[in-house]
Amino acid sequence: MWLIDAKTTRLVHVNDVADKPRYAILSHTWGEGEVSFRDMSARSSRISRKPQRRPAWSKIENSCRLALSYKCDYVWIDTCCIDNSSSSELQQAINSMFRWYERAEICFVHLADVSVDKDHNRLKSAFRDSRWFKRGGLSRNYWPLRLWCSTTGRGV
Question: Which residues of 122-145 are buried (b: 16+ CB within 10 A; e: fewer)?
């Protein structure tokens, strides 16, 4: 399992999640310009600490900051913690997903299509109509006991 070190925002490999410190998971819908495992690996091998600037990097950095505030040392994000170029790793990730969500300390939910700038009634409607609630793989069985939600402009 690959995790993002919340202090350094770099990938680290762990053999068994049961032996590792607390981690958070980010649940989100994929958008354009997501940071991939390959992007994270290239960044981890470079000396430079500054990532390329694109919105998805902010999502990772903000998730790490939020994880640290919940005393979690690591973050797992599907877009950049699964090596999709390896069919065996992809299959292992699919088979382990429930366990990874179950063992997470908290699940952060990022609603990219909901803005806090809306008035109360429009915000309720936007929240209810968010793509996150409509996506195919969503399962309440994945949710850990603690859930934290953010929208565009606040949190993650």
Answer: eeeebbeebebeeeeeeeeebbee
User: 139 pLDDT exceeds 60?
Assistant: no
Q: Which helix (H) or strand (E) holds 94?
A: helix 87-103
Name every residue whose Cβ is closer than 8 Å to that of residue 69 and which is 6 or more positions away in sequence.
none
Tell me, what DSSP letter sits at residue 40? H
pLDDT tens per residue, range 104-116: 898 888 877 777 7
% of the chain exceeding 70 in pLDDT: 74
DSSP symbols for 98-142: HHHHHH-SEEEEEEEEEETTS-HHHHHHHHHT-HHHH-TT--GGG
Q: Enter the DSSP assignment of 154.
A: B
- Domain residues for the domain of 72 are 2-152
3-state secondary structure 41-89: HHHHHCCCCCCCCCHHHHHHHHHHHHHHHCCCCEEEEHHHHCCCCCHHH
CA distance 97 to 93: 6
Per the structure, the count of domains in the chain is: 1
